């Protein structure tokens, strides 16, 4: 965090110069977003997980993880409170339903839907629904994704 006018930043999550899989460490964090309560959600790309940090916390809680992620990057909370991530090297965007429990880890099942679709995952029962993009199928077609690295919502539902 950088205070306005400050010449140095302050570490608010993780440890400077140390990477790893523990709840107080990251391995290639690529994106952050905040919810309405001030909780910070961090895409921990190297550990294939999303960590939630409470304001002032010294460790995070894994709220979503999956071995099916491949180089996940961008992360945002949509207008309905769902966590949405760009799963870059799988060429898809995945959405986890809101209400992520503080101590539960989700493992997403293998995608069996047609290529190049966006996914909507129900957090509580590990189901997944494609809403755009596809796993391992890059393309320049209008209905496909090629290495998405971020997500953004313009206020319209998808």
TrEMBL record:
Keywords: Repeat. NHL repeats lie at residues 69-99. It holds the Pfam family NHL. The keyword Transcription regulation does not apply. The keyword Disulfide bond does not apply. It comes from the Eukaryota. InterPro entries: 6-blade_b-propeller_TolB-like (IPR011042), NHL_repeat (IPR001258). This is NHL repeat protein. It comes from Rotaria magnacalcarata.
